[in-house]
Amino acid sequence: MVRVGRQRNARRIETIRKTAFYLTLLLVFIRCCQIHELIYYRFHINTYAVIVVGAPATLGLIISKSFIRPFRLPQAYCWLGFSLWMVITVPFSFWKGGSIQVVGDYWRTDAVMFLLIGGLTTTWEEFERLIEVLAISCLLCLVMIKAYGELDINGRTTLPFGALANSNDYAAHLLMLLPSVLWVALTSKSLLMRIITICVIGYGIFAVLSSGSRGALISVAIGTLYFLIMASRRQRLVAACLMAIMLFATMTVLPKAAVQRLLSFSRTEDASEEAMESSDIRKRVLEEGISRTLENPIFGLGPGNFSNFEGVSEAANWAPPHNSYITVASECGIPGFLLFVSGVVLSFRTMMRIGFKFRRKPEQSKIAQAAICMQLMMVMFCVAVAFLNFAYSFHFPFLVGTSIAMAYTSLGPRSPSRAHTRVRSLDGREGNAEMGYLSV
Question: How confident is the model over 358-363, as a mean pLDDT?
Fold first, then answer.
């Protein structure tokens, strides 16, 4: 009877976990495609979708005790430490009210992402569903850009609504999503699906570059180089040819003003004056960010307070640092910066180790391809936000959670490579081997 009761309880807990997992997928879809902001823009209805979906998902995470699972990897401790350090800095912030709002918003909707994704994704099939949701979100984002995108006076595509209205911001967001479409192209057995996904990637690159973001151009270049290094010989040849065609077509179709801005890296006769002014502002606030970090090395200025501090200074400049890493350093101090960077680096290292482990195993090609695409996702996004203000967005907790989920589902006890491994315990009973995936 005791054994039967335990089995029923285990099934009940698993049902709660699965429900919370699918709610998490819905939450990822909402956050990545920004559908709730489109609804508000079109119909002026605030759906509170992030809270409505996120709250029961978090409750399921707690009831199923899945929040414990992410802490088998060190990046979870780093990200929890960074999130808690943000709270600690509030009493020492330049403007406590502003920091309380930033920290409150972050903890309410963003910080939990690494626990939801890392804790609730327990099988490789579920991880594949996660990547597919990212790919669908990317497709919907591109549809929104096509349907609602507008050209500003500098020939840059912008959105008229939402948190990604800024050209630079939506470009960085797309760069995080596009590798999921690449994974579908690499793993699909259907030729038609591969053609469709390649076309989506091509339009995605066009949409990214049409933003006129030079940081996005640098990110695309570095991401392409990274993929060519990590991919197989056949993939390199195909990718190099396709990328050359895509870039040529993109530069041909883009408005002349956007192309001029993309190529304006130094002051020449053909350089965009607006782009050069933007570079001067970014250089100045970057120097100010480093200065503020050295002046307040422990607690910083407080989350969200760099612009406020600069605004009341003699320069009366309300501009943010335009660098996510300097934002963290100047507003959360060096301890917060180290925790932040450690979480990102450890997440990337996890994905690299998974890639190296499975790259020579043809029967596990989907895992190897996913590892490359997830690395590419981190490389391009982390380069892009070095020129933007994404420090407290959901993107970084999402990436940390994705690395944890990938490690657990590809190398853990319920992974495709170990799901059928059987061991006999000392008392003679058989069960799945709880293999230690942290040694990867």
Answer: 77
